[in-house]
Amino acid sequence: VQLVESGGGSVQAGGSLRLSCAASGYTVSRYCMGWFRQAPGKEREGVATIDSGSRTSYADSVKGRFTISKDNAENTLYLQMNSLKPDDTGMYYCAARVVPFCRSPRSADFSYWGQGTQVTVSS
């Protein structure tokens, strides 16, 4: 299984970015997937998840600003990030489980991880 993130970069506050996670050896339509982030000196935190039925869940800090989605034909997971804030700065990771439902998973529940893509938001 390989997960490859892309789309990170540097933006000013209020800007937008779209992260992508291309999966190989894994079928995104069948399982729970998620996005996590880690800021320097902080623990990794969950940002959003999406299950096999495309039901989504978000951290309170990103609700209304971020949207997780997947394209089953492209076998790719996305994270659309709007109204970005400096607090959104960090390394963003795509993660995948081997069960279809998410049910508020912890990071330890995810079996596969991408290498991460950096997001930097300046004020």
What can you see in these coordinates?
With about 120 residues, the chain is mostly beta strands. The chain has strands at about 1-5, 10, 15-25, 35-40, 45-50, 55-60, 65-70, 75-80, 90-95, 110-115, 115-120. Strand 5 and strand 6 (about 55-60) form a beta hairpin.
Summarize the structure.
The chain has no helices and eleven strands. The chain has 123 residues and is mainly β.
Structural class: mainly beta
* Overall 3D shape: globular
- Binned, the helix content reads under 10%
How far apart are the first and last residues' alpha carbons, in Å? 37 Å
Q: What portion of the residues fall into strands of 2 or more residues?
A: over 45%
Instruction: Give the strand tally.
Output: 11
| Chain-averaged pLDDT | 97
The count of helical stretches stands at 0
Whole-number radius of gyration?
A: 13 Å
Extract low-pLDDT stretches.
Answer: none
SSE order and pairing:
Blueprint lengths: L1 E5 L2 E4 L4 E8 L8 E6 L6 E6 L5 E3 L7 E6 L4 E6 L8 E7 L15 E2 L3 E6 L1
Parallel strand pairs: 2-11
Antiparallel strand pairs: 1-3, 3-8, 4-5, 4-9, 5-6, 7-8, 9-10, 9-11
Index terms:
mainly beta, 123 residues, 11 strands, 7-stranded mixed β-sheet, 4-stranded antiparallel β-sheet, globular
